[in-house]
Amino acid sequence: MTVKRILISQSKTSNQAPYDALREKFGVTIDFQPFFIIEPLSSREFRAQRINVLDYTAIVFSARNTIDAFFALCEELRVKVPETMKYFCTTEAVAVYLQKHIVYRKRKIFFGNGTAQSVVDQIGTKHKDEKFLITTSSAGSNEAITKLFDGAGLDYHAAVFVKPVSQDIKSIDLHSYDMIVFYNPSDIKSLEENFPDFERGDIKFVTYGKQIVGAMKEAGLPIEVQAPTPEAPSVARALELYLEKNK
């Protein structure tokens, strides 16, 4: 079956050049529609975890939405974050985002290269005696970073600050698409909530990342194209290779 219409389960990216190239080269239609959004926990939901932010001397961030949620919850709960608090971020981009909430140059901020190991490396021996609060999402797996923190003998606690909320996508005719791209298990949860009687038919599925694979298997949805791979490090490249092979 020739692929003509593709649905990507995310918001439209700022860089459309790779997808514009696919549209022009293969004559395909590519639409973007997020299946879920990330929202901060309510103060009531957060309090249920029995977390006292002031018990910790260092915060670990891996995403900008958890930064927003952290400071919003602190404000709502009237928690004044001390200037002595240390911040460890997975990337420089996440670290720089902190300046939305704090005076960046006056705080102790450290960042890695995008991996959990790089965060542990930044902690090293100099900061190993801190008490770490790892900010997480209810949808994600914390195993990669908590296993490393355990291995390094660090004192930490992982707390949920954000959660995925399914979008109402019932008005979308999924079967008008030949291919759908999924990134997150929450995409599948949204699919099942919006279309409880969904049948795949001839739709082919593309996945990006490791977490989505298990959710696809559990839902009984076969994966036609899986990324990233050495040959296809991005979704756009994976689509290009598939379309070239099946044109």
Core attributes:
247 residues, alpha/beta, Rossmann fold, 2 domains
Mean pLDDT: 94
Strand content: 15-25%
Query: By helix and strand content, what is the structural category?
Result: alpha/beta
The strands making up the biggest β-sheet line up spatially as: 3-8-7-4-5-6
Task: Give a description of the structure.
The chain has 247 residues and is α/β, with parallel strands linked by helices. The chain starts with a strand and ends with a helix. It has nine helices and eleven strands. The strands form two sheets. The chain has a six-stranded mixed beta sheet with strand order 3-8-7-4-5-6, with helices on both faces. Strands 2-1-9-10-11 form a five-stranded parallel beta sheet, sandwiched between helices. Helix 1 (17-26) runs parallel beside helix 9. The chain has two domains: 5-35 and 169-245, Rossmann fold; 39-164, Rossmann fold, CATH 3.40.50.10090. It is elongated. Helices cover 33% and strands 23% of the residues. The relative contact order is 0.17. The mean pLDDT is 94.
SSE map:
Blueprint: E1 5-8, H1 17-26, E2 29-32, E3 36-40, H2 43-47, E4 58-61, H3 64-76, E5 86-89, H4 92-97, E6 108-111, H5 116-123, E7 131-137, H6 143-151, E8 155-166, E9 179-182, H7 185-194, E10 204-208, H8 211-219, E11 225-227, H9 235-245
Parallel strand pairs: 1-2, 1-9, 4-5, 4-7, 5-6, 7-8, 9-10, 10-11
Antiparallel strand pairs: 3-8
Helix pairs in contact: 1-9
